[in-house]
Amino acid sequence: MTILIVFLCIALLIVLISVFKVNAFLSFLIVSFLTGMALGLPLAKIPSSIEKGMGDILGSLTIIITAGAMLGKLVAESGAAQKIAQVSMAVFGRKYIQWAMMLTGFLIGIPLYYGVGFVLMVPLIFSVVYRYKLPALYIGLPMLAALSVTHGFLPPHPSPAALVIQFNADMGLTLLYGLAVAVPAIVIGGPLFSKALKGIKVAPLASFTAKEMADEDLPSGLKSFFTALLPVILLAAASFFPLILSADSPVLPYILFLGNPSVVMLIVLVVATWLLGLSQRKTITEIMVIYADAVKDIALILLIIAGSGALKQILTESGVSNQIADYLQHVQIEPLILAWVIAAIIRFCVGSATVAGLTTAGIIFPLMQQTHTDPNLMVLAVGAGSLMFSHVNDSGFWLFKEYFGLTLKDTFKSWALMETIVGTVGLVGVLLLNIIIN
Questions:
Q1: Residues 427, 334: contact at Cβ < 8 Å?
Q2: Closest C-alpha among 122, 57, 111, 27 to residue 395
Q3: Alpha helices in 197-334 (DSSP H)
Q4: 197: helix, coil or strand?
Q5: What does the alpha-carbon distance between residue 396 and residue 385 come to, in Å, rounded to a whole number?
Q6: Environment class of residue 222 by beta-carbon count within 10 Å: exposed (0-12), middle (13-18) or buried (19+)?
Q7: Quick one: pLDDT at residue 184?
Q8: Which of 26, 68, 279, 287 is 20–30 Å from 303 (CA)?
């Protein structure tokens, strides 16, 4: 009965948004209240649960998304995105620019949190799209597929890193196996799949339409690439130094502070204000206008993400994920496949890849020990399952939809299907590795 209620509530959400054209944020609020009541949460607790869900998700994403949008707007307005696109095309050529985008997303995605990588890469995607008249999804999906896969499969991202600890796996070996699984998943879900999406029309945010500028007015390639890659450099350093420093090192707290994604984005924004703003003869007033326009563009996105957080919290506090897991725990099936299935179903119901992964870990760990399943492969199987079935209760779904200006139908055909492809290919890769290792 619980699963049926969840399916009916998700169906209602889709109907409100797609059929009755109700604002997505209001739809989330309505469905969150109804879902809480249908699942038997105490009435007095439902409002606080919704507020907590909204606060939790915005608390972790507001600085990242807002600062990232400001940086993206400045990258576009300063001509840095145009310069990066020119250099990329010169190096890889028009024929291979799609693969260049995929490689960029993969390299950036290893140390970079998905939300940061997304808002940083969108301006680059659209600079290539508008300058060279290429289909937006054909160019953008390979890069975003790479970001998503690294987020779900590879440490030091939160869910895989936590799974390594819970399963007593080896961080380095998991990363090595993860790279072997991630590459084919990205290639199939990115460049190959996106060829089928060339006909989908997009209406992206005007904020990310790269303004054509004369070559002499563009910032240098060094300034442009350094500003875009600075978050990667800082976060990579923050991930590397704790591995070589002792736990009682006096500099470690400073490194952890400077490596926090919100702190990184603030530092990068300050640096970009100088390199792409003041040093390019823009006044501080002009730069602040650019930043204000960027905030206006992403305000609704933040509200929609907050709404998805509210629904996720209702589903989490109702115990849906644990109930579903209990139903599946005693199914006689290969542990790696069972872990993938549990994570995929929880992901479908609660929307969060991290919640799906960590919930599955507690359920599957005893079975993993009993069957002596490789813990490194178990991390990847759960990670692959946690990427499956992204839909309307996933903030990543709405980021993609709103930034690219897609209809709900086209978002399912592109983003949701891509996530399902990479999750499925990831499972196949894990099973093949299991055969090879054993």
A1: no
A2: 57
A3: 221-244, 252-258, 261-272, 284-317, 320-328
A4: helix
A5: 16
A6: exposed
A7: 96
A8: 287
